[in-house]
Design brief:
The chain is α/β, with parallel strands linked by helices. It has one domain: 3-Layer(aba) Sandwich (Rossmann fold), CATH 3.40.50. The chain is 30% helix and 29% strand. It is built from three helices and five strands; from the N terminus they run E-E-E-H-E-H-E-H. A five-stranded mixed beta sheet has the order 1-2-4-3-5, covered by helices on one side. Strand 3, helix 1 and strand 4 form a beta-alpha-beta unit. It is globular and about 40 Å long.
Length: 111
């Protein structure tokens, strides 16, 4: 069962899903998707902790007022969610737009 949390960034309330225990994997959804899309593509399993932040305007997350939306903003939100979850290190991945966010994270934080 996923543990749900929220994160306030700027004036946007963002939804985080955290399930499983073990190696932390932050796995992001594609454009127009959300946690349900991720759960279908990356089901919970033993030895893995899957964390998904529903990006601004997706799933149960609010839009907030900063514009324009960009991969950099989404990546910053993911780092804030990882910090809130107490993660020092994690594997990043995703579907479509989520993969682009993961690449942004890997370029900025290669360790």
């Amino acid at each position: 069962m996923a543990r749900l949390a929220t994160l306030l960034r700027d004036d946007a309330t963002l939804r985080i899903s955290d399930s499983g225990d073990g190696l932390a994997v932050v796995f992001q959804h594609g454009l127009g998707g959300g946690e349900a899309q991720v759960a279908q593509a990356f089901p919970s399993g033993p030895g893995l902790r899957r964390i998904t932040l529903e990006c601004r305007g997706h799933g149960a997350s609010g839009l907030g007022s900063p514009r324009p939306f960009c991969l950099s903003m989404f990546a910053d939100d993911v780092v804030a969610a990882a910090d809130q979850a107490g993660l020092d290190r994690f594997v990043a991945g995703g579907i479509s737009m989520g993969a682009a966010i993961a690449m942004r994270l890997a370029c900025r934080h290669p360790d």
